[in-house]
Specification:
Blueprint (H helix, E strand, L loop, with lengths): L2 H7 L11 H6 L2 H14 L2 E12 L4 E12 L6 E8 L3 E6 L2 E6 L4 E6 L4 H8 L7 H7 E11 L2 E10 L2 H4 L4 E7 L4 E8 L5 E11 L17 E4 L1
Parallel strand pairs: 6-12
Antiparallel strand pairs: 1-2, 1-11, 2-3, 3-4, 4-5, 5-6, 7-8, 8-9, 9-10, 10-11
Helix pairs in contact: 3-5
C-alpha cells in the first residue's frame, strides 16, 4: 500500500452547539481549537461521500476515486472504513490497530499492523473528523489562513505542518477547510515531500448515526490471497 493511501484513510468528524461566528469571523486559532475540543466531546460517528484526487508528480497524472467513508470514533478503538466504488471497487479499513486493504479485482488482502508506528497513525487520526483541538496541536503546528465558504458552509482554512519526523516523511504540510462548529473537514489537501498532492473532498456529511458493524468488516473470498506487512 502506498503512503498516500495510508494517510488518506486516517481522516475523520464531530459536532458542537455553539455558533460559528466567533471562529469564522476572526479565524482566531485559539477560538477554533476550543470549538474543536467541544465538538470532539460530542462526536460519535460519521458517514460521508468522499472524492479523492491523487496527483503523482513523476508521471504528471491524476488518479480520481470516489466512494463512501465511515468513521466510528470509539476512543482508543477508533474505526475507519473507506469503500471506493469508482473507478474500481476497493475497501480500506482501520480497526483494532490494524489497517486492511482489499482489492476485489485481484482478490488480494493486505494487512498492516500499526503497532510499530502508533504515534504516526495517531497523528492522522486527529485530522478531519472528531479530532480535538488539543490533539491536533499536539501532532501538528497549526496556523489559520482565513475564512471561506464551501457549499455555502462557513469554514476556517488551517495549515498543518507535522511535528514528528516520521510524519514529515509522508506529508510535508496539509491544508484543511474545517467547520469548527461540527468538527468536520469539507476539504483537505496533503503535500508530500516528493511533490505528490492529494485532494480530498467530503459531501453529504451525516454524523452520530447508528453505523452497522458490517461496514468495518471486509468481505473476502475463500481464495483471497493475504499479504502481511
Amino acid at each position: 500500500m502506498s503512503r498516500g493511501l495510508f494517510a488518506a484513510v486516517l481522516l475523520a468528524t464531530g459536532m458542537v452547539t455553539q455558533t460559528a461566528s466567533s471562529a469564522t469571523n476572526t479565524a482566531d486559532l485559539n477560538s477554533v481549537m476550543r470549538l474543536l475540543d467541544a465538538a470532539a466531546a460530542k462526536f460519535r460517528t460519521t458517514q460521508a461521500d468522499v472524492s479523492w484526487d491523487q496527483y503523482e508528480k513523476v508521471v504528471d497524472a491524476h488518479e480520481l476515486q470516489s466512494g463512501t467513508i465511515y468513521y466510528n470514533g470509539n476512543g482508543a478503538n477508533t474505526e475507519v472504513a473507506i469503500l471506493f466504488t469508482k473507478p474500481a471497487a476497493k475497501s480500506v479499513v482501520f480497526k483494532d490497530g490494524t489497517l486492511r486493504y482489499y482489492l476485489p479485482k485481484v482478490d488480494q488482502l493486505t494487512v498492516i499492523s500499526t503497532s510499530r508506528n502508533r504515534s504516526t497513525y495517531e497523528s492522522f487520526l486527529g485530522v478531519g473528523f472528531g479530532g480535538s483541538g488539543k490533539d491536533l496541536e499536539a501532532a501538528w503546528n497549526v496556523s489559520t489562513l482565513g475564512n471561506e465558504q464551501i457549499n455555502h458552509v462557513p469554514v476556517v482554512k488551517l495549515e498543518l505542518r507535522p511535528r514528528q519526523e516520521s510524519v514529515r516523511r509522508i506529508v510535508e504540510r496539509a491544508l484543511i477547510w474545517v467547520d469548527p462548529t461540527r468538527d468536520v473537514s469539507l476539504k483537505q489537501v496533503f503535500y508530500s515531500p516528493s511533490g505528490d498532492v492529494r485532494t480530498v473532498t467530503y459531501t453529504n456529511l451525516r454524523y452520530n448515526l447508528m453505523l452497522s458493524p458490517s461496514v468495518f468488516a471486509i468481505k473476502t473470498t475463500a481464495n483471497t490471497q493475504t499479504v502481511y506487512k
